[in-house]
Amino acid sequence: MNSTPSLSESASVNPIDQASEVDYNKHYHHPVWPQRWHHPDFTEKAMAKWKEEPCYRNTADRITHRFLTQRFPCHFPWGYIIYRTVYTPESEKLWPIAMEKLTRVMTTWIKGELNYGDDPRPEHLIEESHKDVIISDSSRWDGAGIEQVRGHFAQYLREIKQEEHCEESRFAVRLVIDERSLNSLVATDDPDDGFVGVVDGRYDPGKRYDSPSDCGYMRVLVWALWPLYLNLQFDHMCELCPNAPDGWIPVYDEGDGTAQDEDGNFIPREFFRKRPEGLTQRRRGRG
Q1: What is the pLDDT of the chain when averaged over all its residues?
Q2: CB burial class (10 A; 0-12, 13-18, 19+) of residue 145?
Q3: DSSP state, 43?
Q4: Contact, 174 vs 225, CB < 8 A?
Q5: Burial letters for 18-41: b for 16+ Cβ neighbours within 10 Å, e otherwise?
Q6: pTM of the prediction?
């Protein structure tokens, strides 16, 4: 995977200043990347030959197979756009540890598809084509709030003509790593521990949503990042966001959902209201 950026890939660049409309026939490019992504297995000719490979027939029932074959060139590389909003001296030490954990947990989930077959080719291609975007600029984002991130995100979507796009997970949400989420990621090596913030750039505070707790923001447990990415191809964040009692933050966990307080303490299960009927059985994404 290519999730952990070099310094040049998280440089002080305003993506809005250099953003360009997405070309569906070219690989996705973000201005913070010093050069366009390229991979020999993802050229137009190579992608056309995927159908000739044995794994194309042998892995048709796997989510990873469908993830690869039902997408345009512009959907690669795939990954989240992540805003870093903490820049303390301690965070400089913790940041690379947290990024490594995100990559490791995502890889574990992707390789879990091998339980449904023994040809690792699709999983290998997905790992190779993973590249997150890190928005990192202490002068601009240190201590930034949700609305600041949402506004920047929405403006970027307008510039690249993707404000109404809902079929590409990269443009559906932004991840936010603040001090609380950073500390949660590095507190233990347990892949089940840790969370990051998720911001819906299309959230309209003047609109009435089905979920009374939907405020265009939730958290996602680190191990649910891959399932969330899959499900965002089909559903808006407002449809995936769990219900949560007043004063609690909804938390996506791929299942019924849960909730936390600001410090990351989980709500007692007996007080938690489950997700709307129809969403509770979703597992492993859809394809």
Answers
A1: 84
A2: exposed
A3: S
A4: no
A5: ebeebeeeebbbbbbbeeeeeeee
A6: 0.87
Give the Cα separation of 6 and 237 in Å (integer): 30
Q: What percentage of the chain reaches a pLDDT higher than 90?
A: 50
Contact 136, 84 (CB under 8 A): yes
Contacts of 242 (CB under 8 A, 6+ apart): 211, 213, 218, 250, 251, 252, 253, 256, 257, 258, 259, 274, 275
pLDDT at 22: 83
Q: Does residue 83 sit in helix, strand or coil?
A: strand
Q: State which H helix or E strand residue 81 sits in.
A: strand 81-84
195-200 sheet: strands from edge to edge = 133-135, 81-84, 173-177, 195-200, 217-221, 249-252, 258-260
Alpha-carbon distance of 255 to 128, in angstroms, equals: 28
Q: Which two tokens stand for residue 218?
A: 């939730």
In this structure, is the dihedral angle defined by the CA atoms of residues 14, 20, 25 and 26, taken in order, positive or negative? negative
Phi, psi (degrees; rounded to nearest 5) at 202: -95, 5
**Single-letter amino acid code for the residue at 221:** L
| DSSP H or E run through 196 | strand 195-200
What are the sequence ranges of the domains in the chain? 77-267
Residue 85: which pLDDT band, with cuts at 50, 70 and 90? very high
Residue 181, helix vs strand vs coil:
helix
CA within 13 Å, CB half, 105: 23
